[in-house]
Structure prediction request, 260 residues.
Amino acid sequence: MLDLKIQINMTTVIVQQLTMLLAVATLALLWLLESARPFFKRANDRFAHARTNFLYAIVGISLTTIFSAFGLHALSCLAPYWSGVKLLGLPFWAQTLTLFLSFDAWMYVWHRLNHHLPLLWRFHQAHHSDREMDTTTAFRFHPLELAFSEVARFPVMLLLGMGAFELALYNLVLIPVILLHHSNVALSPTLDAALNRVIASPNMHRVHHSEIQAETDSNFGAVFSWWDKLFGTYQTPNAPEKITLGVKFIEPKFSEPIIK
Ligand SMILES: [Zn+2]
Prediction:
C-alpha cells in the first residue's frame, strides 16, 4: 500500500514536470505559428502585448501553486475518511477517466458561473478584455478569479475524491488545450472542425471571446467541447473571421436562469 502511494507520488511529480515542459514547448510552437499563420492580422507589437499577459502569469502561477499546495494537503488528510469515486471500486483507468471527465464538467460549470454572477464576472472580464487574443491570453486571469476558483474547486475535488495525481493529469491535458484555443493561429477550417468534435478548438473559443454578449455567453468548455453541446450553450463558429474580440458590456445578464 505504502509502495503504491510512493509510486503514485513519483508519478505525480513526473506528470507535473511533463506538464511544465509541454506548456513551454506548446507556448513556443504556437507563438511561432501565430507569426507565420495569424488568424487575425495584428498591428501592435506582440511582445508588448505578451508582457502584460506574462505579468498575469507570474502572479497567477505563484498564487495557484500556493493555494493548490494547501488544498491538496487538506485533501490528502481527508482522503482516509472519504474517497469519492474511488469508493466505486472501478478499474484504475475507469476511475481516472471518470474523475477527469467530472472535473472538466466542473470547469464548464465554474466558467458559466463566472459569466452569470456579477461578482465573478467583475474579475473574469479581465480575461475577456484582451482585444488581441493570442496564446498568452491563456495566462491572463485576475488573481482574485484564480483565488475564487481554487476555493470553489476544493469541495468539488473532495466530493469526487480527487488528489494530486488526478489534478496533475488534468492539467497535463488542460494547459496545451487552453494555449491552443486562445491562440491566433489560422488552422484550416477542416482541422479546426475535426478538433472541435472533441476539444474546444480555436474557432469555438473565438466565439466565446466575442464582444457581443450573446456570443460570449456560450462555448464555455475548457477541455472538451461536449458540455456546451450537451447543455445547450454551444454556438457553431460560422464566421469566426468577423468576430470582434473583447468586452463591450459591463454587467452580466445575471437575472437570466443558467439552465434554460
Ligand atoms: Zn469566459
Q: What stands out?
A: The first helix runs from residue 2 to 36.
